[in-house]
Amino acid sequence: MAIAKVAHLASSDIGIRVHLRKQMVDQQARGYDVHGITPPGQWITADGMTGDGIPVKLVNYSSSARTPIRDLRALIDLVRYFRAERFDIVHTHGLKPGLLGRLAARLARVPIVVHTIHGLFFYEGMSALARRGWAQVERLGMRLGDYALSQNREDIEVAIAMGLCPPDRIGYLGNGIELSVFAPDIAAGPAVAELRRSFGVRPGEKVVCIAGRFIVEKGHLEFFEAARRIRAQRDDVHFWAAGAEQPERPGRLMHDDPTVAQASQVVRFLGMRWDMPAIMAAADVFVFPSHGREGIPRVLMEAAAMERAIVTTDVRGCREVIQHGATGLLVARGDAGALTGAIVRLLDDEAEARRLGAGAGQYARRHFDENAYCERIADCYERLLRNAMPRSRERTVEAGARRWDGAGMAEPAEQRGVGRARSRGASQRR
Q1: pLDDT, tens digit, for every residue of 37-49?
Q2: How far lies 244's CA from each of 122, 166, 174, 290, in Å?
Q3: Residues 6+ apart with CB under 8 A from 392
Q4: H or E element that contains 202
Q5: What is the mean pLDDT of the chain?
Q6: What is the pTM of this model?
Q7: CATH 3.40.50.2000 boundaries in the chain
Q8: Structure confidence by residue, pLDDT tens digits, 144-164
Q9: Is a pLDDT exceeding 60 seen at residue 397?
Q10: Cβ–Cβ contacts within 10 Å for residue 248, how many?
Q11: Backbone phi, then psi, for 17, in 5-degree steps?
Q12: Among 284, 293, 129, 137, which residue's Cα sits nearest to residue 215?
């Protein structure tokens, strides 16, 4: 019997399929009736059910700030959907889903609205005007929600200092991965050796890899320049770029862009990969020169867990994984020269690379177990559900025993059924 009915709004279908999958499956196992909402994408093209039995609804919102008519339609669709499904909790992720989802939830009178900050949208290096503007957008979103969960600690400090939200309405979430999948011993397996051979890497040669969405702010242009500079000096280094194109994102990079076409002379573009443990294991140096807007980057946690030598930028979120000189190297954002120097340092000093990789692995195993952040989300939900109940009733949330109805009454599940206006998919899977 469901404790409560929860909707997660993701910024893209890959969010439902990868980034939010663990927490949604965990909540389902705890007794929540979990649903996903995403714009249509390459991997989710219609309403349906995930392989884990979670219903998914497509709503056509955009990640761009320049689609007001589309966003208005999406807002109306969300309000109608929330009212029809009568969710108890709406949990949003990312800037655009965060704004539209929280506003729609308020208009639909959803009892509890939670938002995960996957990196505040403004970052170091922005102009003062842009920073103030995006801070106002973040402040508006915070006012529409009941609670915010921040993936990194620095964003909490910034949000409180800038008055985006009061201290009692924001808390630390962290992030995590399936550590058993990203294990360092994968690198010694025959499949990794074969992968390197298949990409033309000969014995003794090195691989430098970047992974992330194919957009400017992930630092691909600096990576291209570093690759060009290094290849001009030596031919024993291979450069790989893994990640999907994001045609609707601001700052998108497409394979037919002249800059990308020129970079393809020294960089092998791998596209979207579902075998990232093997790709990372095949790399000698992992690079993530993000400009900012990071919660705790998944690819950095993965590379750290696999004990790769890592170079990333000195920005919020990335600093949550990499401590300079202990678990990797930090360079200034946008500085291709510094990035080049750090990569060369790790290529030339194998002992240093191994030391930093080992430090990263130890840190990842202590701090990035995905089960820990799932527990924090569960604790947050239980606290918010308790607080939403009338004080005179003082009822606790008990998995499988009672279900919160959003209006202050918790009837036994066997009397009222599981969920209100539940979708056909949800009914079939229980």
Answers
A1: 999 998 899 999 9
A2: 23, 37, 25, 16
A3: none
A4: none
A5: 89
A6: 0.88
A7: 5-176+370-429, 184-367
A8: 999 999 999 999 999 999 999
A9: no
A10: 13
A11: -75, -30
A12: 293
